[in-house]
Structures are given as structure tokens and as C-alpha cells.
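User: Second chain of the day. Same drill as before.
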Amino acid sequence: MSYRDTTRRLAAMRDEIARLRKEMRKAQGRVEPEPVDNYTFATTGGATSLADLFGDKDTLFVIHNMGASCRFCTLWADGFNGVLPHLESRAAFVVSSPDAPERQQKFKDSRGWKFRMVSHRGSNFARDMGYMDDNGYRPGVSVFKKKAGAVVRVSDQQLGPYDDFCAVWHFFDMLPEGAGDWSPQYKYGGA
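Assistant: Same format as last time:
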């Protein structure tokens, strides 16, 4: 297929994706919130609760991160760092992992991350939210709201290659060979 024909076909596909996204936003707007416990997390500053993570916001993004041992979770977190000010203009934002707070802080500093981190180690948070099972942890994002003095979950989605939360995959989609066998690394070349 010619370059121009392919470009037109891809544009039509992107229009269809945009239409589906609009339907998804409508469905998301009709969700019945899920009540959740006010979980306790560990931080380098001591214990904090899920409700406390909202700060002065009524909405909270919690990233379910598998920890410093996951190169893919690190890739996603690197990207969140760049959009953090935009996200925080609308909602509170925190990354949660099973790593101890001191390990989180050391890894966060090594990556230059600016977002807050909390440890869910020793709690049922990841399991109750559906991001841990007998096979281990899974990455994702949950959105919580404060409603009538309680915390409710209004949305969640797993994270993984080719999702909408990591731009790298979408750039690779533009390459004729796609991502191929590429895998994220903690450092590249001489970096």
C-alpha cells in the first residue's frame, strides 16, 4: 500500500479510536463508585492514610507500581514525572509500591522523580485493589474520590506495553518494525 494510502487508512483508524474514547469517557462518567477502606501506607516521614494522600484535592491518582526491580514500571514512572505538574493541577498523585520507604526514596532520588511515593508493604491494598494475586504484583492506576467523608474508587486500569499511559510505545508504533524485541533498561549506552 502506498505511503499516502496507508496514512489515510491510519488517520481513519485514529478517528475510530477517538470515537471509542468518547464513548469510554461517557461510560466512565456513569460508574457507580466502589467504597474502599482507608488504608495505611508507610513513607519516609511515617505512616499516612489513603484519605491523607488527597491533600487539598478531592481526587487522587494512585499508581500501582511493582517496585524498583521492574524496568517496565520504572519506564512508566519516568514518564509520569514529566506530566506531574499537569496532573497535580487537577488531582493528587502518588506512586505506591511494595518496596520499603527507604528503598523507594533511594531509587526515586536516582531517577530524579518528583512525585510522592508510599509503600503498601504489610497491607492488603494492592490485593484488594486487584493489583496483586498469588502470582505477584501487577502495575496499574486507580482513581479515588472523596465523597461524603468516605473514599471511593471511581476508575482503574492495568498498565502494560502499548497502553495509553506510556508514550514510548506509541512512538514505536510509528516505526515500520514497531517495538520489535525492545525492552526498557535502567540505563542506555554510556548513560
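The domain at 33-173 is CATH 3.40.30.10 (Glutaredoxin).

User: Great, on to the next one.
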